[in-house]
């Protein structure tokens, strides 16, 4: 099984997004063993279970994940593990706030003040993948810190 760049494999990222719409490639080597593994992975994904592909570097785990996702016909959200990631990089976080203040001084001897503060939540990669029904490929997850990966337990 060979690993090739996404563009060469016919998997081009969508504009302004980290999503990829995988497509079957003519150059993908589909041996009976690889096809059986891809079908098994697809069956687990359809049932709502995660799939963990393990093996030595360069054996085509990520390519197989893209192949299984292409068989499902769903967009893919690709994340590469990183030691600097925090949970908010996957799930989301409060990002800023809006404050509204109303001062009512219609009667000059009476002052009525109302203040409302709202935070803005920004969804991040894992949350948007769940909302949009995308297949999440978390490549090289062992590069991220354990407390970040607890999110997936």
CATH topology of the domain at 19-90 and 123-152: Rossmann fold
Question: Biggest β-sheet, characterized?
Answer: 3 strands, mixed
* Quaternary structure type: single chain
Query: Whole-Å distance between the termini?
Result: 30 Å
CATH superfamily of the domain at 19-90 and 123-152: P-loop containing nucleotide triphosphate hydrolases
Percentage of residues assigned to helices: 25-40%
**CATH architect. name of the domain at 19-90 and 123-152:** 3-Layer(aba) Sandwich
Strand element count: 5
Give the helix/strand class.
Answer: alpha+beta
**Helical segment count:** 5
Could you characterize what this model shows?
This protein has 153 residues and is an alpha+beta fold. It has a domain at 19-90 and 123-152: Rossmann fold (3-Layer(aba) Sandwich). The protein has helices at 32-46, 61-72, 87-90, 125-132, 146-149; strands at residues 19-20, 76-80, 92-104, 112-123, 135-139. The strands form 2 sheets. It has a 3-stranded mixed sheet with strand order 1-2-5, sandwiched between helices. It is elongated. The two termini are 30 Å apart. The relative contact order is 0.17.
């Amino acid at each position: 099984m060979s690993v090739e760049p996404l563009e060469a494999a016919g998997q081009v990222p969508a504009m302004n997004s980290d999503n990829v719409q995988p497509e079957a490639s003519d150059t993908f080597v589909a041996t009976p063993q690889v096809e059986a593994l891809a079908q098994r992975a697809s069956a687990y994904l359809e049932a709502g279970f995660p799939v963990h592909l393990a093996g030595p570097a360069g054996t085509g785990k990520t390519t197989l994940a893209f192949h299984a996702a292409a068989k499902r016909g769903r967009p893919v959200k690709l994340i590469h593990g990183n030691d600097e990631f925090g949970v908010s990089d996957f799930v989301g976080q409060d990002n800023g706030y809006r404050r509204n203040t109303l001062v009512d001084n219609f009667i000059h001897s009476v002052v009525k003040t109302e203040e409302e503060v709202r935070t803005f939540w920004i969804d991040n990669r894992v949350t948007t993948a769940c909302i949009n029904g995308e297949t999440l490929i978390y490549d090289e997850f062992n590069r991220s810190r354990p407390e970040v990966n607890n999110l997936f337990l």
